[in-house]
Amino acid sequence: MSGPNRPPNQPNDRELQDFLDGHGELRAAYHADAQEQSPAAVDDAILRMATKAVVVKVDIPQRPRVQSASFNPWKTSLAAAAVLVLSFGAFLQIRKDPIVERAVFEPAIQQAEIAAAPPAMKAQSASPSESRQRALARAQADVAQRQQREKKEVSTVADATVGMAMAAAPAPVVESELASSMAAEDNVAAKDAVGAGAQAFAMQDAAPAPAPSPPAAAMAKSIDQQRAAPMGRMAAAPAMAAAESSFSASAASMSEAPIHRWLNTCSAEALLAVPSRDDAGLFAKPQLWNGLPVVAIVGNALVFDASVSQETILAQWGATKNAAACLKPAQTAGGLSLHCGCIQP
Amino acid sequence: MSGSDDLHTDETLMLLYVAGDVSAFATLYGRHKDGIWRYLLRGSHNEASTAELSQDVWASVIKAREGYEPRARFATWLYRVAHNRLVDHWRAERPQEELDVAAEVAGPEHQTPAARATQEEQGNRLMQALSALSVEQREAFLLQAEGGLSLDEIAITQSVGRETVKSRLRYALAKLRGELADVWP
Questions:
Q1: What values do phi and psi take at A285, rounded to 5?
Q2: What are the pLDDT digits (tens) for B46-65?
Q3: CA-CA distance, B53 to B38, in Å (whole number)?
Q4: What does pLDDT average to in each consecutive run of 10 residues of chain A (345 residues)?
Q5: Measured distance CA(A65)–CA(B158) in Å, rounded
Q6: ipTM strictly over 0.95?
Q7: What phi-psi label fits residue B119: left (phi over 0), alpha (psi between -120 and 50 degrees) or beta?
Q8: What is the secondary structure of A256-284 as a DSSP string?
Q9: Best of A46, A55, A58 to disrupt the B interface by mutation (most B CBs within 10 Å)?
Q10: Is any Cβ of chain B less than 8 angstroms from the Cβ of A49?
Q11: Does the CB of A36 have a partner CB in chain B at under 8 Å?
């Protein structure tokens, strides 16, 4: 491999490969001669710059850590106690809610109300997109109204409960998310008439409650508003049948995998698989969760189509709860609760 | 510098620095400071400019600390920063300055074989030959020789295709070998 035996100035692939591999005479010759080093003054200046960049950042957080170190133990205990109080208080409130109880234990009243306004129901069945819009608007209104009711009825303990509700209760969390990130949807909720109250309750965290367990207050409020234009879970059998048949007919066009995968894996990847939504947060077309059509995800809650019954949802949730092991129930109150912390980073 | 830092990869050291470990940065700096210095020196042909460029390059590294994510090898990223800074330097300087510098170091062909043989070092001729290369060929050579970048990494740094980099390196090596053909052991 001596120089004079090789034609100079001719590309040599072997020489190139040797060079790339870190070998070769040229490389060795270069490194033997390339002995320049950066001056010490330059090194010092750069290292000072690097130190300064870190020192400026470290100073600020260190002081609070030192000051608050002694408070950590009881602060944590206080937070845990507040969460427990919150959970119990929210449970009691839901059980006491007359609207919720009425919705669960007096279906006959709703049957009559629904029968009084069949045209509205039929209109909603015929327009799924409008139904979904109303479902989402209803869910948002439910959350807002429940929040207001909680504020009125809470005692001294409940005040702390409400304060912690933003951290622990799924419904308040959902509402806070709505307030912060769905301003457009709030407008829709404000403007939308209380017309055909499409069935839309937020699925929030809960244990697999027994059948008579009341739904979330959000849904209760939804039912309350449905009196004016009843259309909902407790819809009359004919309307329900019509709605269900329409969904079964369109089931083939729906995609179940994204939401189910989201519930199973609770991963960011699965979240990305959630279909695109319009500006109001509604899916372009309903997605299936265990065969049940979901029209939107509000915060961490699933918003079902108006035709889906509470019992159906509870039954499905019970069947899949093992698969949704990633869920973190924040409260054990009865009702429709399905909470997954995956959407929130 | 702590001894344990020497066992870490460049990317880990940078992440440690992001977390506030200044000694990790010192280790990282120690690994690459001379390579970057020589790379910039060969490109600027001026120690004063090299000092300024070097500080600019490392200031960019320090500034990028907050949002640093090891998406590529640290060396690739570092030399890309250096390349970009060097390009800015060339654009700021008058173009003919580089040609003048190249003319100053060129010229072994005008010397007699005896004069060449008596030159201080074979390496000195190599450096002169390196300076006589085109900017792109010299850069490709230095990115590999100093930075240890692969063909693909050099391609990314120079914003050209892989085959273009291979071609540049082939001809750079051929020219350098040609300059030293008569004195090659």
A1: -145, 150
A2: 899 999 999 999 999 999 98
A3: 11
A4: 50 84 87 91 95 70 48 78 89 76 59 58 50 63 70 56 45 43 47 42 42 44 44 39 44 46 39 46 70 68 69 63 39 38 29
A5: 46
A6: no
A7: beta
A8: -HHHHHHHHH--HHHHHTSPPB-TTSEEE
A9: A46
A10: yes
A11: yes
Longest dimension (CA), chain B: 59
A199 contacts A168 by C-beta, under 8 angstroms: no
* Out of A22, A38, A50, closest to residue B22 by CB: A50
Q: Does A18 touch chain B (CB under 8 A)?
A: no
Spatial contact of B54 and B36, defined as CB atoms under 8 Å apart: yes
Chain A residues with CB under 8 Å of B126 CB are: 26, 29-30, 33
Q: Give the C-alpha separation, B70 to B77, whole Å.
A: 9
DSSP 3-state of A202: strand
Task: Kindly calculate the radius of gyration of chain B based on its CA atoms and give it in whole angstroms.
Answer: 18
CA distance A127 to chain B (A): 48
Q: SS3 helix, strand, coil % of chain B, rounded to 5? A: 75, 0, 25
B73 phi and psi angles, rounded to 5 deg? -60, 145
Whole-number Å distance between alpha carbons of A7 and B24 = 47
Q: Whole-angstrom Cα distance, residue A282 to residue A286?
A: 8
Q: A146: part of which helix (H) or strand (E)?
A: helix A128-153
Structure tokens at A148: 């207001």
Q: Which residue from A240, A243, A232 is spatially nearest to A109, judged by alpha carbons?
A: A232
pTM: 0.43
φ, ψ of residue A20 to 5 degrees: the values are -65, -30
Is the Cβ of B153 closer than 8 Å to some Cβ of chain A? Answer: no
Whole-angstrom Cα distance, residue B38 to residue B32?
Answer: 10
Asked if A42 has any chain B CB less than 8 Å from its own CB, the reply is yes
Residue A250, token pair as written in the block:
């369109």
State the best of B17, B21, B49, B62 to mutate against chain A, taking most chain A CBs within 10 Å: B62
State how far the alpha carbon of B163 is from the alpha carbons of A4, A23, B87, in Å: 28, 21, 22
Q: Is B8 on the interface with A (CB under 8 A)?
A: no
Three-state DSSP at A220 gives helix
Paired tokens of A70: 């002694």
Separation between Cα atoms, residue A60 and residue B83, nearest integer Å = 35
Looking at the DSSP assignment, which residues form a beta bridge with residue B139?
Answer: none
Chain A positions in Cβ-Cβ contact with residue B34 (cut-off 8 Å): 36-38
Enumerate the β-bridge partners of residue A283: A277
CB of A287 closer than 8 Å to CB of A275: yes
Can you point out the beta strands (E) in chain A? 202-203, 282-289, 292-298, 301-304
Q: Which residue of A has its CA nearest to B35?
A: A37
